[in-house]
Design a protein that fits this description.
The protein is α/β, with parallel strands linked by helices and 420 residues long. The protein has one domain: TIM Barrel (Alpha-Beta Barrel). Strand 4, helix 10 and strand 5 form a beta-alpha-beta unit. The protein starts with 6 loop residues before the first helix and ends in a 39-residue tail after the last helix.
């Protein structure tokens, strides 16, 4: 993209009079998060007449297409991965278990997935960089063995302060997701050398690693000015060490990518976890297809879950709306041809304690390899062109997560990070 593209200019290029659709965010922070913002409705992106990752080969009309490409397999078919029992990335890497990784990524192969999106832990790297690298090497090698390329994030801008208590808390109703780095670090430029060292450390080792599909600087920094200011500076270090692996930033909406393109990012992302109706989701995918054609950039739908009723993330949910239903969206995404990552590969209680109180659980696979819904597994696998799936189905909350069952909604739990 030549020159500077304003937010308004981006929207005009992308969807013209329908700009309102991409101004909205596909995710909302937890109301208990100190950096919360006013909830907004979801957004969508990328699709029709092309496959995700393609650049500039689709429709060139200014009229939004009414039909999607319905036959070709989706190029990027991925899942978000955090181990079932980990509440944050520090726990994922500090307690890294090679056997669990090999088991879980084997489940991804059963769905014909070819990509995984996950994150490193800056806090664990500070504590044990060699241990983190050793665990990461095993993870990347295992993913490669199963034909999975990894979108790997260096930071996450969502969650609660990375205090020691928050990092290690593993109680089902108290465990929380944490952002990185700490607020104290982001606010003090004199403390930025260590985060820059972290970026350099990573890029010198992995900027040309073909086990990676993309390097994600951070996830959803657009909620807070200090995050944006800090991450913009980190992006300068990241791009100095640019290699063959494309760079990206997790984004709630396509409109936020105006900033990230100026930072030197190569791939656009957007998140649209929930929608009230299929028509709403289809409209956003159609708009996004137009954006990808005009912007000549790959676009990924890097978080999605299901159709469900209610206003916003914290709607009052009935029992049927608190559980996975990926088959309500997967066919639409397949027809749109958009590269995508659903939340999440492993069945686990929602990241947000607020949603856990409503019994919200998401994911495909129980730890023993059975699935919550065979229909969901088939719908996701169908993106590869093969809708067959054999395996046991068990629509039961895991025994270790019994406290979050809908019958326990009255239990007291702290407000956690932004919902999943």
């Amino acid at each position: 993209m030549n020159g500077r593209t304003s937010r308004r200019g981006f929207l005009v290029k992308g969807i013209g009079a329908s700009a309102g659709g991409l101004l909205t965010a596909g995710t909302v922070r937890d109301a208990g998060d100190e950096r919360a913002r006013t909830p907004r409705e979801g957004t969508g992106t990328n699709g029709a007449r092309r496959t995700a990752g393609s650049t500039g080969e689709g429709t060139t009309n200014d009229v939004l297409p009414d039909e999607f490409d319905t036959n070709a397999p989706v190029d990027v078919r991925g899942a978000i991965y955090v181990p079932t029992r980990a509440f944050n990335r520090y726990q994922m890497w500090h307690d890294y278990d090679p056997d669990v990784t090999e088991r879980d990524l084997g489940y991804a192969e059963r769905l014909n997935l070819n990509a995984i999106r996950t994150w490193m832990s800056y806090q664990y790297w500070l504590q044990d960089p060699e241990g983190h690298e050793q665990a990461l090497e095993h993870f990347l090698d295992t993913a490669d063995d199963y034909g999975l390329r990894v979108v790997l994030g260096l930071h996450d801008s969502i969650g609660l302060e990375p205090t020691y208590e928050n990092l290690v808390q593993d109680d089902l109703l108290k465990g929380v997701h944490t952002f990185s780095p700490a607020t104290r670090t982001m606010l003090n430029e004199n403390l930025w050398e260590k985060p820059r060292e972290y970026v350099r450390w990573f890029m010198r080792r992995y900027s040309d690693d073909d086990r990676l599909l993309a390097i994600e600087l951070t996830n959803e920094p657009g909620w807070n000015r200090k995050d944006m200011r800090f991450m913009e500076e980190m992006a300068k270090t990241l791009t100095v060490y640019r290699g063959d692996v494309p760079l990206t930033v997790g984004s709630t909406s396509l409109a936020n990518n105006t900033h990230f393109l100026e930072w030197g990012m190569d791939i656009l992302q957007f998140h649209y976890n929930f929608a009230n109706t299929p028509a709403q989701y289809r409209r956003m995918l159609r708009q996004a297809n137009h954006v990808i054609t005009k912007m000549d950039k790959p676009v990924w739908l890097s978080e999605w879950q299901r159709i469900r009723p209610g206003d916003g993330f914290f709607a009052n949910l009935d029992d049927g709306s608190a559980v996975p239903d990926y088959s309500s969206l997967a066919p639409l995404i397949q027809k749109a041809g958009i590269g995508n990552f659903f939340w999440s590969l492993m069945l686990k209680p929602a990241y947000s304690a607020k949603l856990r109180r409503q019994g919200v659980i998401n994911g495909i696979f129980h730890e023993d390899g059975s699935v919550w819904s065979r229909d969901d597994a088939k719908a996701i696998k169908a993106m590869s062109g093969d809708a067959s799936f054999d395996g046991p189905e068990r629509q039961e909350y895991p025994e270790w997560a019994a406290e979050v069952k809908p019958s326990r909604r009255g239990v007291d739990a702290p407000d956690g990070p932004r919902p999943r």
